[in-house]
Each structure stands twice: as C-alpha cells, then as structure tokens.
C-alpha cells in the first residue's frame, strides 16, 4: 500500500499567523507551526513605534527592525554605519509600539563579526534593553559559532543569506547563488544555519528556483526578498512597500501606496493655508 501525503489543511484561523485571532505575542514556535501547516506569512521592517503600531494592528505577525534603518531612516548611504546604540534605541521603540508581532532586532555590522562572545553581548543587549523576541545576523557557515552561542543562550536567531548588505563592499548589490557552485554553497549555508539552531532564514536576491529548493530542503521557514514566490514568507522594507522611498526602488519590491506623494501633498496643503492665513480657524483656536 502506498501512503499518500496528507493534503495541507487550511490555516486554523485561531492559530493563523496572519488573520489569526490570538492576542498574545507571536513566538518562533508559532512560525514553526506555520511551516508545518504550509501557511505563508508576511514580514515588514519598522523603525519607530507609530509605524510599528500600524503594522501590528494590520496583523503583520513579524516585524524586523532591520539595519536597513541606515538607508531608510537615518540617512546613511548603506547599512554599514548603523551602530548598536541606534539599533537598541529604535528596536525598543518598535517593541513599545506593538502588542502581538514578534519583533526581530538586526545585529548591525561590527556587532558580531569578532566572534560568539561579542555576538552574545550585542544580542543580549537587544533582548534585555529593547525587549526583542529574536535577533537576525548575516552569514551561514561564516556565522555558525555566533548562531550556536546565541541559540545555546536561549536567543532565537534568524539567519540572512544570499545578498548580505553588510558585505556590500565585497559583494556589491547582485543576485547571489547563480551557477552550480554558488547554488550548492547557498544550500550548504542554509542547512548549516538550520543545524546550528536558527529558527528561520532570510533569502535575499536569490534565483526563484534555488529559493524554492532551499525552502523544500529546510524544516525551518524561509523568508524571501527578491527570491521568487515559493518561500514560506515574504519580507519588504516598509518604506519601499508604502512608496515613501525616494528615487529608484529595487525591481523585486512592490509599492502598495504612494506615501511620498500623499505626505508631500499634505505638507504643501498645510504650508499653503499658513501662508494664505486660512489656518488656524476658529475651531482650532482657544479663548
Ligand atoms: O535590514 C533589513 O531590512 C533586512 C531585510 C531586507 C531582510 O535585512
């Protein structure tokens, strides 16, 4: 007799990560459950309490305080200059702005590359000072001692593979994992991260077929950005997703709003009324 694989059940709405009814904070165990159920989920970045509260109320189950704050919030050209002080400050704000989402704090460049002890010190700071539920670090095999140390200490680790922006000075911004050798290396990195105890793997700018193979090969969730439709989850940088980022945005992002236009229009309307003497009016005035 041949055993047939059980068909995937529709997401149980009490447990579902997106659209679920639960009000407690989501944990990495909930993400493991979603992988087992074959349920896809969204992740967004946030860098302040107010934006994070909007995403939390919208039901986004995982919010990443990404070091993309360097480009998107702090005015740097890359993620490289972001410091632990900046990460701790903004992660704490995001945690304060949310009630349900799992908040993941990024370990910035220079905060874990020295080795596991430095990684533990940095991650502990984000957990204790900012209250994040997990941390993210870049690299598979090259960051294994760090991942193992954090997991042993009880800190959930999200691994980041493919294009790793902290290595922009050696890697540039190019699709990773093209060609057999590079694809095998990426698959090896993903399995190594899983074996070291990572609870999820971000795949950035990776060919869709390779991301699908990694997703099938792992029992932990994959989170794609520029990695095609077959990863378990998708992440976007919020300012790209909402159309606030100025200039050219990467081809793999999709703009779901035009906040840059909307905010600019609001600012121009306010300025016009101040200059024209029509704001404030009686209803905005105290006597
Ligand atoms: O810093 C960030 O926002 C990220 C995502 C793009 C995954 O690492």
From TrEMBL:
Q: How is the cofactor bound?
A: Binds 1 Mg(2+) ion per subunit.
The reply to whether Lyase figures as a keyword in the UniProt entry is no
Reactions catalysed, semicolon-separated, are: (6R)-5,10-methylene-5,6,7,8-tetrahydrofolate + 3-methyl-2-oxobutanoate + H2O = 2-dehydropantoate + (6S)-5,6,7,8-tetrahydrofolate
- The record lists 3-methyl-2-oxobutanoate as bound by 67-68, 106, 136
Q: What does this protein do?
A: Catalyzes the reversible reaction in which hydroxymethyl group from 5,10-methylenetetrahydrofolate is transferred onto alpha-ketoisovalerate to form ketopantoate.
Q: Which Pfam families match?
A: Pantoate_transf
SUPFAM superfamilies given in the database record: Phosphoenolpyruvate/pyruvate domain
Key words, A-Z: Cytoplasm, Magnesium, Metal-binding, Pantothenate biosynthesis, Transferase
**Subunit record text:** Homodecamer; pentamer of dimers.
Subcellular localization: Cytoplasm
Q: Which residues form the active site?
A: 204 (proton acceptor)
Into which family does the record put it?
Belongs to the PanB family.
Which residues bind Mg(2+) per the record? 67, 106, 138
Name of the protein = 3-methyl-2-oxobutanoate hydroxymethyltransferase
EC number of this enzyme: 2.1.2.11
Annotated GO biological process: pantothenate biosynthetic process
Quote a single Gene Ontology cellular component term: cytoplasm
Q: Which cofactor does it need?
A: Mg(2+)
């Amino acid at each position: 007799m041949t055993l047939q694989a059980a068909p995937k059940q529709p997401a149980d709405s009490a447990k579902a990560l997106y659209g679920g009814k639960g009000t407690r904070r989501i944990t990495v165990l909930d993400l493991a459950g979603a992988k087992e159920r074959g349920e896809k989920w969204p992740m967004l970045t946030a860098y302040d309490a107010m934006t994070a509260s909007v995403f939390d109320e919208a039901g986004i189950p995982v919010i990443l305080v990404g070091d993309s704050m360097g480009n998107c919030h702090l005015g740097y050209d890359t993620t490289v200059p972001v410091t632990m002080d900046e990460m701790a400050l903004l992660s704490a704000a995001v945690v304060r702005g949310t009630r349900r989402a799992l908040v993941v704090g990024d370990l910035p460049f220079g905060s874990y590359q020295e080795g596991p002890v430095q990684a533990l010190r940095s991650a502990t700071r984000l957990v204790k000072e900012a209250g994040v539920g997990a941390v993210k670090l870049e690299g598979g095999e090259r960051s294994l001692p760090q991942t193992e140390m954090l997991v042993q200490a009880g800190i959930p680790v999200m691994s980041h593979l493919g294009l790793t922006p902290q290595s922009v000075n050696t890697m540039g911004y190019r699709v990773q994992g093209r060609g057999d050798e590079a694809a095998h290396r990426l698959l090896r990195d993903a399995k190594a991260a899983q074996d070291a105890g990572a609870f999820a793997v971000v795949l950035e700018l990776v060919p869709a077929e390779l991301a699908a193979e990694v997703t099938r090969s792992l029992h932990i969730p994959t989170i794609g950005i520029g990695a095609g439709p077959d990863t378990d989850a998708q992440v976007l940088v919020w300012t790209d997703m909402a159309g606030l980022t100025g200039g050219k945005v990467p081809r793999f992002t999709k703009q779901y709003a035009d906040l840059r236009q909307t905010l600019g229009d609001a600012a121009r309307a306010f300025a016009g009324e101040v200059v024209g003497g029509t704001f404030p009016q009686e209803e905005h005035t105290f006597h």
